[in-house]
Amino acid sequence: MKFDNSKKLYEEAKKMVPGGVSSSIRQTEWPVPLFFKSAKGSKMTDVDDNEFIDYVMGMGPNIFGHSPDFITNSVYQDMQDGFCLTGQTKKENELSEFVEKTLPFKRKVRYASSGTEIVQIALRLARSFTNKNKFLKFEGHYHGWMDSVLYNSHPDVSSEETLFDPIAESGGISKGTADEVVIAPWNDIEALESILKVHNDISAIITEPILWNSNVILPNPGYLENLRKLCNQHGILLIFDEVGTGFRVALGGAQEIYGVEPDLSTYAKSMAGGFPIAMLAGKPEIMDYMSNGNVVHGGSFNTNVMSVSAAHATLDYLLNNEDFYKSLNKNGDILIKGLKEVAKKHDIDILIQGLGSVFYLSFTNLDSIKNYRDHANNVDQEKYREFSKLMLLNGIRLSQNGRWHMSSSHDISDIEITIKAAELSFAEL
To answer: pTM of this prediction?
Structure first.
């Protein structure tokens, strides 16, 4: 398999774009960040005519696979009458009605363009509503790349001296933002209780209800319920960051699975099947702070015609295909079972955690991983990087962070080819 054209284009790109890419995570791809010319269903074709079965799926959004016809047709039709209207459409109202049918709790909603920005308005609302300034986030959780939240998502935990100190994840982070964030370990309710005893100025606790960004870790039994109780006791708003899990793990997201009600929740990736849109859903009394003038939220591209059309088509499809998630998880479970079997055949220790729709493959001898420190201290990331290189050479494109995203376009043939490629790759390892 050759990558000559991608290498040539990448060298050209680096002359114009820092690092040759417009998102930092893409820069780690081997042998270079690849350039693609087409993507349809479960497959992608690069500029060297290499075809791959894709499990990156846009890092999660492409829940139906690439370029599903029903979304493409909807967007094409609607965009004939305008793109960015700085106004509302009937379809936006219909989208909100669809959302009301999907979410398990009564909510008002507001739309934006990305998960990063929708988290910011959630935190702004929490500060205004509670009149408290700080917020608490958990180690290993990611809530976007803005200065206020880019702390302790992937910190170095080799030294106990920095135990839960705010650690910026980038150069140039405003130093003042460190004073507004409190860091806690996840899946440890006793530790959280101790932290809340010494902090009385926390407006919100924000959490991925399923730890999507670190090993796809499920919450311990009762953890989210106890988190809800603590927030009630301390007058703190509970924010579920469902940017990754929303419309992917279930129609109503992780909160449908666990039955725990947050005060606010954020959505993005899978909501429009690959188009950029984000949504904040919250209790009406909190959300109304944006209508009474207390909280400002803007955006020229919010509810643009194409994104609303794609989200409308996505939710319409999901609402009318009740077996969608059952089928998605079933195929994912078949793939997981096959991956485990071929790893065992070659005496390779792996752990796969998550759900059929999204899961994480780790090279580790642990039976389970419960928090970020388990992940950081016990997972062989270098071995996974080598595995992903071998899989690419065997026709399978994987994300660089270990997370696999299933789509409804992955069929049994794709799964069988993937398992065979994994067997070859494990043998090489």
So the answer is: 0.96
